[in-house]
Amino acid sequence: VEAAKRLAAFAAVDRHVGLEHKFIGIGSGSTVPYVVDRIVAQGPEANRHRVFIPTGFQSKELIIKAHLTLGDVDQFPNLDVTIDGADEVDNDLNCIKGGGACQLREKVLAEAATTWVIVADYRKNSHVLGTTWTQGVPIEVAPFAYAKVLTNLSQLGSPHILPNGKPGLALRMAKMKAGPVVSDNGNFIIDAPFPPEQMKKPAELLHQIKMLTGVVEVGLFCDMAEAAYFGNEDGTVMIRH
Ligand code: DER
Fold first, then answer.
1. Which atom of ligand 1 lies at the shortest distance from residue 101's CA?
2. 61-92 residue pLDDT tens
3. Which of 25, 116, 117 is nearest to 75 (CA)?
4. 106 assigned to active site
5. Which helix (H) or strand (E) holds 61?
6. Is the CB of 100 inside a 6 Å radius of any atom of ligand 1?
7. Which of 5, 18, 189, 224 has the smallest C-beta neighbourhood within 10 Å, fewest atoms?
8. pLDDT in tens, 101-113
9. Pair 56, 27: CB distance under 8 Å
10. Where are the membrane-spanning stretches (predicted)?
11. Helix or strand run (H / E) with residue 42
């Protein structure tokens, strides 16, 4: 799987990060480190006048450790290109994102960029959202509102128990910390699975969820990606536009 991630990342950087690209958004997750590796490999001359804007703590550390110039979206709100991972991608390049609880800043940098590109391994290459990523739509919520939003999501059709008996709609609890996961913005994450008929219309579902008071951002990225690069096990890369 790592080789597939590297393949996707390298292909995307080679195609979308040229010398003319100065302001570059770096996403979050386990695939984007290969994006940074490939950019560093372009050499100090190519990177001397570039600024790299992170989508969270992990992304910021990646940029710093690679000795690339770190910038802030406050200072550089108009990016040339942002490259990011995804948890699942459908036929129309709509994505589920937020497995790493970074979707608010990721969506800000995706929208701030002229070009937004997805890099992923073959496991994310899906047809209908919710098929391979079954944990639910990651939703960042204000802590004050999480219980109310859980009620709203249940009323919207998100089941507390999945058909296979596994837990469904839930506040995302931390593993090495008592209590819930807290995002880089100090908010909670709710994971909300929905039945296929609703996941087949991600833009509609996104709007319904986004309208719930207390929701900060929704891990559905619809009609945003310029291209998606999927690394395959056989060493090939599939590019979808
Ligand atoms: O949280 C996210 O959206 C991240 O981009 C992440 O989920 C991407 O997954 P990866 O670790 O397989 O790259």
1. 1
2. 999 999 999 999 999 999 999 999 999 999 99
3. 25
4. yes
5. helix 57-65
6. yes
7. 18
8. 999 999 999 999 9
9. no
10. none
11. none
- Residue 100 CA, chain-centre distance (Å), reads 8
- Residue nearest atom 4 in ligand 1 by C-alpha distance: 29
Instruction: Please state the φ and ψ torsions of residue 86, each to the nearest 5 degrees.
Output: -155, 160
Half-sphere exposure of 84 (CA within 13 A, CB side): 39
Q: Which residue has the tokens 């390049």?
A: 93
Q: Is 16 exposed, middle or buried (0-12, 13-18, 19+ CB in 10 A)?
A: buried
Task: Classify strands 88-89 and 137-141 as parallel, antiparallel or unpaired.
Answer: unpaired
Handedness of CA 59, 60, 61, 63 (dihedral sign): positive
Catalytic: which of 20, 88, 106, 111?
Answer: 106
| pTM to 2 decimal places | 0.97
